[in-house]
Amino acid sequence: MSDTPKNPSNVPDLPKGYKPMSATVLKLEVPERDGFHRHWFRGTAGRLSQAQQAGYTFVEQKDVHVNNFDLGGDATDSGSTDLGSRVSVISGEDADPATGQPGRMYLMECPEHLYEYSHNILAERNESIASALRGGRLGTGSNGETQTDANNRYVKGTVPDLFNPNKSRRV
Predict the structure, then answer these.
(1) Overall number of domains in the chain
(2) Burial environment of residue 72 by CB neighbours within 10 A (0 to 12, 13 to 18, 19 or more)
(3) Among residues 56, 130, 132, 146, which one has the fewest Cβ atoms lying within 10 Å of its Cβ?
(4) Within the chain, where are the H helices?
(5) CA–CA dist 64, 80 (Å, integer)
(6) Any idea of the CA torsion for 12, 13, 19, 22, to the nearest 10 degrees?
(7) In angstroms, rounded to a whole number, what is the distance separating the alpha carbons of residues 4 and 109?
(8) Could you count the other beta carbons within 10 Å of the beta carbon of residue 106?
(9) Is the residue at 121 inside a domain?
(10) CA 131 and chain centroid, separation
């Protein structure tokens, strides 16, 4: 042992990819890619087709490292369990009744501008519903309701402002 006191500001040499045991490790955590939005999709044919129509493409195994939770495998290997070149993991849900195989989750990405465009469409639709609720006009003109019906609707006082449009979480 050395008589020199240890300096707490000196960080020991750590191996590449070191994560302390106390650190939280998320199974589906993947690094971000500049200019793209990454998302895990349930591996049903309809859902994957819908994602592709929205501009998403499959992420290849050579492009990303997925956290490995394999019990007997090498921790430095990627955690993707896809037999092809796509990044996928077993979801543990939705076993196919015909084959008995568990469902899969596929990692896909789309350009950031397409992602923002689709979220703006959703935000506009949600705001139109919220403004109808705030104004007490929900249902006006739909399902055969006449203007007389809408005028005779009882609203006690003013409708409280429960639906504030949320601000974008992205900075």
Answers:
(1) 1
(2) exposed
(3) 146
(4) 45-53, 112-135, 147-151
(5) 9
(6) -20
(7) 52
(8) 22
(9) yes
(10) 27
Which tokens go with 49? 């087709």
**Per residue in 87-119, pLDDT tens?**
888 887 767 777 777 888 899 999 999 999 999
- Token pair of 43 as six digits: 């591996």
Distances (CA, A) of 1 to 4, 6, 12, 14: 9, 11, 17, 21
Task: Give the tokens for residue 120.
Answer: 């703006």
In a domain, 106, yes or no: yes
Residue 16 lies in a domain: no
Domain of residue 70: give its range.
36-150
For 28-53, the pLDDT digits (tens) are 888 899 999 999 998 888 999 999 99
